[in-house]
């Protein structure tokens, strides 16, 4: 219920309030749609705050917008390691630059007495929210690496689902808390836009492109003489041509970015255009999902009723190829043949973003998460150095029984209790036990 509110309800409330509130301010309080510059009150610290902030945040916004508008092109680009590393480095540098700028702006407003009289509570709240959002983004980038790659398959489909009125909170609900906080923080900031100075971001002076050129000169004689000497015989029309060239380039770039989303918008507004065969295939897929859900619920009921769940025969376990099974928490796990002919059970859910790891063990005794290239040692569960995953895979306890008699067992990380007879391995069955999972998350 909480995830549904934060990932579906809050976004729609934020988008609605942002649109309605922004339109109201433009219609009713048009002179209030401004950042209310404080440069006249204090300009020395402002330079060291606003420039790095704007450079950093514009870079980050572009970096978030391009993969959202052109997911296919972006996935092809980040599949090249050099490009991926470059994007990650630029993004992290831009975030650090933005955080530095915000820090300077916050200290400036706290220490400059002239600014305190024109600083509202909402100004302080917005600065704190923006700083928290940038810091959360840096935590995501450093703890869950290669976000430029995996976000195109998780976060951006989630946003598209919201915009096309087909929300799918499951794409984000299972992610680590810091990523969910980063997503929720974005919606909270959007919710605050109409009530803060951030609304000035929507104020684009398009009319400046068609008005006659103007020259603004400070009214001091020294500055006036200096500007006159620098201007010389400059043609005002030349400056207008430079502006028009820049606008043309920007329009061309915007048109190219729009190509990736025109088809989806057209399909959305055109409505249902599926043929009878397409509808039939869609219903078959929906029916298949219902059956998969039924199977999953049956497994949950089975695990609620039974103290032991069979994994497989001891002779079916192999050292180099794991046997998949579902544990008591309905999570994937793998069973290997460990040292001494005993079972080795380990979680198959990657600790990075929850992908299922592969079952094959390489020559170094590791299994691979193919989603974001994390290797885990089978014996210790620890990830390899430099892998996106930081936490180890958990080992599971096991029970070996012959018929209804328990022959041997081992708690997770504990000592083996009992012994097995290798000559009777054909009759041994490996199970997981409810008592071994009690108290585990």
Main beta-sheet annotation: 5 strands, antiparallel
Strand order of the largest sheet: 1-11-8-9-10
Number of domain units: 2
**Which quaternary structure do these chains form?**
single chain
- End-to-end gap: 19 Å
Helix content range of the residues, please? Answer: 40-55%
The top-level CATH class of the largest domain is Mainly Alpha
Total DSSP helices: 13
Class derived from helix and strand content = alpha+beta
CATH fold label of the largest domain:
Fumarate Reductase Cytochrome B subunit
What is the CATH superfamily of the largest domain?
A: Transmembrane di-heme cytochromes, Chain C
Radius of gyration: 30 Å
Please give the number of β-strands. Answer: 11
- CATH architecture label name of the largest domain: Up-down Bundle
Spans of at least 5 consecutive residues with low confidence: none
Q: What sort of overall outline do the alpha carbons produce when their principal axes are compared?
A: elongated
Mean pLDDT: 81
Beta-strand percent range: 5-15%
Order of helices and strands: HHHHHHHHHHHHHEEEEEEEEEEE
Characteristic terms for this protein:
441 residues, alpha+beta, Fumarate Reductase Cytochrome B subunit, Rieske Iron-sulfur Protein, five-stranded antiparallel sheet, 13 helices
């Amino acid at each position: 219920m909480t995830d549904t509110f934060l990932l579906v309800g809050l976004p729609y409330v934020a988008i609605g309030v942002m649109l309605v509130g922004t339109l109201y301010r433009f219609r009713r309080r048009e002179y209030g749609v401004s950042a209310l510059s404080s440069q006249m009150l204090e300009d020395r610290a402002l330079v060291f705050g606003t420039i790095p902030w704007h450079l950093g945040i514009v870079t980050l916004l572009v970096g978030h917008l391009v993969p959202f508008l052109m997911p296919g092109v972006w996935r092809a680009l980040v599949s090249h390691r050099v490009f991926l590393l470059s994007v990650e480095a630029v993004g992290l540098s831009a975030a650090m630059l933005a955080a530095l700028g915000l820090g300077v702006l916050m200290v400036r407003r706290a220490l400059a007495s002239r600014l305190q009289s024109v600083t509202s509570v909402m100004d302080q709240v917005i600065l704190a929210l923006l700083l928290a959002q940038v810091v959360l983004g840096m935590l995501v980038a450093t703890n869950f690496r290669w976000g430029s790659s995996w976000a195109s398959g998780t976060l951006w489909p989630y946003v598209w689902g919201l915009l096309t009125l087909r929300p799918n909170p499951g794409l984000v609900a299972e992610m680590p808390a810091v990523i969910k906080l980063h997503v929720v923080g974005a919606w909270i900031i959007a919710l605050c836009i109409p009530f803060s100075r951030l609304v000035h971001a929507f104020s684009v002076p398009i009319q400046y492109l068609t008005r006659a050129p103007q020259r603004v000169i400070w009214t001091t004689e020294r500055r006036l003489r200096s500007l006159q000497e620098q201007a010389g015989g400059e043609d005002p029309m030349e400056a207008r041509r430079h502006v028009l060239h820049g606008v043309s380039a920007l329009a061309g770039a915007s048109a190219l970015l729009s190509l990736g989303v025109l088809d989806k918008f057209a399909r959305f507004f055109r409505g249902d255009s599926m043929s009878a065969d397409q509808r039939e295939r869609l219903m078959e897929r929906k029916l298949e999902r219902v059956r998969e859900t039924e199977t999953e619920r049956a497994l949950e009921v089975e695990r609620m009723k039974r103290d032991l769940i069979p994994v497989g025969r001891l002779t079916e376990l192999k050292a180099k190829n794991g046997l998949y099974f579902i544990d008591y928490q309905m999570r994937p796990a793998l069973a290997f043949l460990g040292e001494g002919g005993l079972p080795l059970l380990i979680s198959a859910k990657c600790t990075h973003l929850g992908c299922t790891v592969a079952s094959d063990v390489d020559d170094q005794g590791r299994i691979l998460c193919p989603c974001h290239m994390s290797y885990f040692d089978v014996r210790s569960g620890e990830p390899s150095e430099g892998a996106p995953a930081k936490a180890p895979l958990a080992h599971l306890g096991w029970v070996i029984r012959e018929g209804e008699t328990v022959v041997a067992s081992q708690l997770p990380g504990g000592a083996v209790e009992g012994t097995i007879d290798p000559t009777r391995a054909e009759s041994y069955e490996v199970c997981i036990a409810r008592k071994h999972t009690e108290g585990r998350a």
